[in-house]
Design goal:
Length: 380
C-alpha cells in the first residue's frame, strides 16, 4: 500500500490541534486532536512512500510505535486516504494511459470524494469507459450534453438526430461552426470523438457483444418534446427498463428531469395523465402546440440558459451512471429567464399509467443505479 491523502480536499488548521480537510460543507472533514509531529507525518502521506518507510519516518520524528498505522487508519476511516496502487486491474490499465488521466484529473478528484474507498476514483473512471449512453438530440442542449459525457470518460456516447446542422444548432462545447450543413448525427459524432480523453473503447470489448444502454438522455431541439414528452416515444424504454432523462429549453425556461427509472418513478405517460387530470383542455392545446412547432424558427433558447441546462443534465446523468440517484429522479428542475431561480417540481407516478410505477414500493429506488454498481443513494 502506498497511501496518500486525497488531494481534492484543501487542508487547513482550525487551531493548534485540529485539522480540517475540505472547504465546502458537503465533503469537509474535521480531524483532531492532531499534534505538530503527526501533522508533519500527514504531509508525507502523499503516495510516494509505502507503510514501511512511513513507519521509519514516524520513528525519526519521535512518534511512538504504531502511530503511522493509526494515522492512516484514522484518515482512511474518514474517507481521506487513497492508494496509488489500488483499484484492481481496470485501474492499473488506466495508469498506463497518462495522457487520458491528465485530461481526467479533475474528474478523478470529484470521484475520489464520492467513492471514499482507496482507488474508488480510478474504478469509477474505468466503469464509465464500459458504459453506453444514447443522447437524443444534437442542438444547443443535446450536443453539449453528449460532448460533456464523452469528455468525462463515458466510453460509448451515441447521438441520434435527423436533418442537417443549422447555424442555430452551433454551441460552444457542442457542434462547432464547421458542422453547419453536415448531417446532425455525423457532426455530433465528430464533436463527441474530439471531446473524449482517448480512443473510444472497441464495441463489445473483448466479448464482441454490444453493451446495453445504461441511459438515454432525451434532449430534443424542440424543447416542447422535453416539456411535454410523447409517451409513445419512450414506450420502448419503459417496456425494456432503460432509464431515461429529459432535458431541454422551451420559451426561455430550462428544464432538467425527470430521470425516469421504469417501473419505479413517473414516466412520460404519468406526466401526461397528471396534466390531463389538472387541465381537461391540455390534450387539445398540446395537439395545437405540437403542430405549430413543426417549424424550427422562433425558438427561444438562450445560449447561457441552454449551456446551464446541458451542464446540469450531464452532471445528473454522470451521477446516475456512477451509481447515485440525482435530484432529478422523479423530479424536474426548472429555471426561467430572467431570474433563473432553479426550482424542483415533483413528478408523481399516476395510478392509471400502465408503467406500474404507481404501485412500486419506494424501496425500489434503493436498488436503481448506474454503471459502476455503487449502492449508495445520493443527492444532486
Amino acid at each position: 500500500m502506498y497511501p496518500k491523502v486525497k488531494p481534492a480536499l484543501a487542508r487547513a488548521w482550525r487551531d493548534l490541534q485540529t485539522v480540517q480537510f475540505g472547504v465546502t460543507p458537503a465533503h469537509a472533514v474535521v480531524l483532531g486532536p492532531v499534534d505538530t509531529a503527526t501533522g508533519a507525518l500527514i504531509d508525507r502521506i502523499d503516495g510516494t512512500r509505502g507503510m514501511e518507510l512511513l513507519r521509519a519516518e514516524a520513528a525519526v520524528m519521535g512518534l511512538p510505535d504504531g502511530r503511522a498505522d493509526e494515522v492512516v487508519r484514522r484518515l482512511a476511516g474518514a474517507g481521506l486516504i487513497d492508494d496509488a496502487t489500488a483499484g484492481g486491474p481496470p485501474a492499473q490499465a488506466l495508469r498506463k494511459r497518462p495522457e487520458a488521466l491528465e485530461r481526467l484529473g479533475p474528474d478523478l478528484g470529484s470521484l475520489s470524494l464520492v467513492h471514499r474507498e482507496p482507488g474508488g476514483d480510478l474504478r469509477g473512471v474505468a466503469a464509465r469507459r464500459a458504459i453506453r449512453v444514447q443522447v437524443r438530440g444534437s442542438g444547443r442542449v443535446g450536443g453539449v450534453i453528449a460532448s460533456v459525457l464523452a469528455g468525462a470518460g463515458v466510453g460509448r456516447v451515441e447521438v441520434l438526430d435527423g436533418g442537417r446542422v443549422e447555424p442555430a444548432d452551433v454551441a460552444p462545447g457542442g457542434i462547432g461552426p464547421g458542422g453547419v450543413g453536415r448531417l446532425r448525427a455525423e457532426a455530433a459524432g465528430k464533436a463527441v470523438r474530439e471531446a473524449a480523453p482517448g480512443p473510444t473503447p472497441r464495441a463489445g470489448g473483448h466479448t464482441g457483444a454490444e453493451p446495453g444502454l445504461a441511459l438515454v438522455v432525451v434532449a430534443p431541439r424542440d424543447g416542447l418534446a422535453a416539456w411535454a414528452p410523447d409517451p409513445e416515444t419512450s414506450a420502448d424504454w419503459v417496456a425494456t427498463g432503460v432509464p431515461h432523462l429529459f432535458a431541454g429549453v422551451l420559451e426561455g425556461t430550462g428544464m432538467v428531469g425527470p430521470l425516469v427509472l421504469p417501473g419505479a418513478t413517473a414516466c412520460a405517460g404519468c406526466m401526461e395523465r397528471d396534466r390531463v387530470d389538472g387541465d381537461p383542455a391540455w390534450p387539445r392545446m398540446l395537439v395545437q402546440w405540437r403542430s405549430a412547432r413543426r417549424r424550427s424558427a422562433g425558438a427561444a433558447c438562450d445560449l447561457g440558459l441552454s449551456t446551464a441546462v446541458a451542464g446540469l443534465a450531464a452532471a445528473h446523468a454522470l451521477s446516475f451512471l456512477d451509481g447515485e440517484l440525482p435530484a432529478s429522479t422523479g423530479s424536474r428542475w426548472e429555471a426561467a429567464l430572467p431570474a433563473l431561480h432553479w426550482e424542483a417540481a415533483p413528478v408523481h407516478p399516476h395510478p392509471d399509467c400502465p408503467c406500474g410505477a404507481g404501485a412500486a414500493r419506494p424501496a425500489a429506488l434503493e436498488h436503481a443505479g448506474g454503471g459502476s454498481g455503487a449502492d449508495r443513494q445520493g443527492g444532486p
